[in-house]
Amino acid sequence: MKHTRHAEKRMQQRAISDEVTQRIVAEGVAVSASGGATYFRIPEEVCKAQSEYLRKEARLWEQAAGKAVLIGGEAIITVMHRDKKLFQK
User: Fold this and answer.
1) Confidence at residue 82, expressed as pLDDT on a 0 to 100 scale
2) Residues 11 and 21 sit within 8 Å (Cβ to Cβ)
3) Hey, which of 3, 16, 32, 33 would disulfide with 7, CB 3.0 to 4.6 Å?
């Protein structure tokens, strides 16, 4: 989406990146504004909930690094810290 000079100036003054503005437009709640414009915002509680979810996801990815699960049929047989020899051919 293109920006007006006014928007570019305000983004710079307020340290709001283009990535942030794109996220707000993509995920935000739209409200009609004067002159036929549309106002977008993401409620703070939604931002906090999403941030907490992503922190938990990041922790899971970090905890899964270097681990392996051995499955036979429909059952987990064992779990381990991955042994590189196990995966070499």
Assistant:
1) 79
2) yes
3) 3
Residue 86 has pLDDT above 80, yes or no: no
- Assess whether pLDDT exceeds 80 at residue 88: no
Three-state SS string over the chain comes to CCCCHHHHHHHHHHCCCHHHHHHHHHHCEEEECHHHCEEEECCHHHHHHHHHHHHHHHHHHHHHCCEEEEEECCEEEEEEECCHHHHCC
Q: Which two tokens stand for residue 8?
A: 């570019």
pLDDT at residue 77 greater than cutoff 80: yes
